Amino acid sequence: xxxxxxxxxxxxxxxSTMLQAPNIAAAAGAELLDVVQAEIPEEVRSGGQTGQxxxxxxxxTDGYAVRVRSTGYIQYVDPETILALARENDLVIRLLHKPGxxxxxxxxxxxxxxxxxxxxxxxxxxxxxxxxxxxxTPTQDVAYAFNQLVEMAVRAMSPAINxxxxxxxxxxxxGEGLSLFIRQGVKSPDYYDRNGRLRLVLEPVTFAELLNGAxxxxxxxxxxxxxxxxxxxxVIDAVGQEAGSPEARQELLRQVSLIQAESQVxxxxxxxRQLIHRASEALIxxxxxxx
Length: 291
Known about the structure:
5-stranded mixed β-sheet; 3-stranded antiparallel β-sheet; 11 helices
């Protein structure tokens, strides 16, 4: 009886520890990094001249639209199945929606070329590669993995909770995820087989999409808190050190300008406004001077 009681106390203590905000943020952050690191398996990235000509030819031809029969969020797409089907049947398949998109009944999720080679059996095999559900999952949905941390930070900044430290913790993990995403480089939308033939076309998640999702809502909710706005600038500074492309730096500059504007409309004292303004100007200059 004493052993059981002690085990119960340890269990309650363990649960209470795991439910603390920093631990939840850390778990969500670890999940985010796993999702960012996971890539759709590919045969070959570059298809050479053969692949380029095939990609251009798709624009001028009509593909067979594969339509779903149910409604829900795309939770998972099996890339190995789709690549195998495309290779075995000498097809080119274009995915029209990313994991996380909401799909309505009879909505097309893929286009297949040439359309004449698609029969009912092949259509069913392609549909089996898509898993729909009632909710989004972070398995392949990078944006949703970021959204989990953003949601936690936004709730922490609500007037009822008012916990800026949790919001800043979430920002740290968001920044780490964005930095890792940049380090992986820009992903090509085209996937080729080992013979250089185009097999799969998809629209990858962009840095701008993730950056806007990470900061837009939280920036607005934190307009009255100078500490959180300042920490946003620090996170952008850390991400900017990994941003090698002008396009990525331009997106970061846009966020800095928005943070600066948000501080002007929030209920901050003048000293805090000036602090955010100086930090923003210094960061803008730093991003402009980056090689």
